[in-house]
Amino acid sequence: MKPGKELLFLALGGSGEIGMNVNLYGCEGKWVMVDLGLTFADPAYPGVELILPDLAFIEDNRADLLGIVLTHGHEDHIGAIPYLAHDLGVPLYATPFTAGLIAGKLEEEGLTGRVKLVTVEMEGGVRLGPFGFRYLPLAHSIPEGNALLIETPYGNIFHTGDWKLDDSPQLGDPSTEAELRAVGDAGVLALVCDSTNVFQEASSGSELGVRKGLDDVIQDADCRVLVTTFASNAARLKTLGHVAQDTGRQVCVAGRSLDRILQVSKSVGYLTDFPPVIDFDTAMRLPRREVMIIATGGQGESRAALARIAFGQHKLALDPGDLVIFSSKQIPGNEIAIGRIQNELAAKGIEMITDRQAPVHVSGHPGRPELAAMYEWIRPEIIVPVHGEMRHMMEQARFAKARGIPHGIVQKNGDLIRLAPNGPEKVGEERVGRLVLDGDVILNADGGTMNERRRRARAGLISVAVTLDGEDRLRGEVALDMQGIPVEEDRDAFLREAGEAAAAAVAKGAGSEDKLREAIRLAVRRCATDWTGKKPVVSVLLVRV
């Protein structure tokens, strides 16, 4: 699909969901991509941790793809790069901190030098065919959160990325109101805007307020304190460094991703005043009142530092009366995993504080007052909500209309939208989907492998081995093995009856080998259904002697 004399928008991820952001802009025969992110798996994907976008559409049109421009370094915006960017064969463009994170990912995958990575200075720009890109810094929870001003022959696009307004940012220098009003004065065709917190009536709040909240809580704590937050929230790391100094504590960092963020931040000039980090042994020797541990795992990740500490599988330990502060928002879907860790901590007499008890966290996304301010400053002709589930995007479209934006369109992944001329209008639908990273292999999220794994997880597996002579007569006993079949103490009786069912199918005969195998499979599955009410996967092996 080659764009004509028009300006097109197509989301391959991030519209109708929070995460896995991939956005395409098309104009005069060429495409550019903004962000290439991933999302994290849920129980619907057994054995899988990472979900990737299906880029089949742009892979089919890669000859017309000019480059990938990255807004910032969160995983839902850059996480798929080491798995998918090489096949696209185009340069990546990012500001220094984001480029540092990407370079580390490419190195881990052996792709250094094989994927071109271009560093663009803050507030700099790049020209790609009919598109001009200029980076405009906005406040967020990671260094170098950026909006993109995209210049095209058909009008300017203001693509916000993830953002908020913060009167007292602790990291970086976001664009001022005057600078953003100047963008609006020059004319903006479309505002492509983060929808995450559209239902939040209040502003997200300043990181400076978090420092005060943490100071108040930790100053009064006569114990060891562990603070867990998103590893990528470098602004929070800076705050925690100050809080440690404010409260007379030394800092111990637990989690490889935290180490990586600190390293990359310092390499490009951020967090240079972060206090010296002590090792695990030193942290455990010091008086409890003198230690602050910063750890990964606030979303309940089973292999992260907090979970291993909670379950006694880490060099660091917590004692009864110690305090754990969850300085992050609970992501929907993680409630059970987080609750598991909190219950374990509670059982050990460890106290906990979340943002429900004290001001220890602020979001990195805009609430309604911030959205209203951005509308007033940018004054677009069109609102295109992204970065949200359908309910978030529909609400932002309503809110923007009430605030005077003339036109809006709510799209979802795969909707091909013409923004100009005569837009916005949906003009087609393109293929989208999900891929899974299963070990070292990328698979279709709903392909044969994952569907088989789901079936086995739901209903279990029975393996049947039958030995036959040349005339299809049974020789010896039917051998059965099973996994996940709910018979428990009746196991032997069930196996005996299932074996008899298989033998009866052999005695009855079925003609061809394929028909005989299917007859045995059905006979054993019927037996399992009679016993359990479930229909397990049944695998049949025929051996001839």
Walk me through what this model shows:
It is a single chain. This protein is α/β, with parallel strands linked by helices and 545 residues long. Helices cover 32% and strands 25% of the residues. The chain is built from 16 helices and 28 strands. The strands form five sheets. Strands 8-7-6-3-2-1-22-23 form an eight-stranded mixed beta sheet. Strands 9-10-11-12-13-20-21 form a seven-stranded mixed beta sheet. Strand 22 and strand 23 form a beta hairpin. Helix 5 packs across helix 12, helix 6 (207-219) runs parallel beside helix 7 and helix 15 (491-508) packs antiparallel against helix 16. The longest helix is centred in the C-terminal third of the chain and has 20 residues, at 513-532. It is globular. The termini are far apart. The mean pLDDT is 95.
Identify the notable features of this structure and list them briefly.
545 residues, 28 strands, eight-stranded mixed sheet, globular, alpha/beta, 16 helices
Radius of gyration: 28 Å
Helix/strand/pairing category: alpha/beta
Q: Helicity, in percent?
A: 25-40%
- Kindly, what is the distance between the CA atoms of the first and last residues, rounded to a whole number of angstroms? 58 Å
DSSP strand content: 15-25%
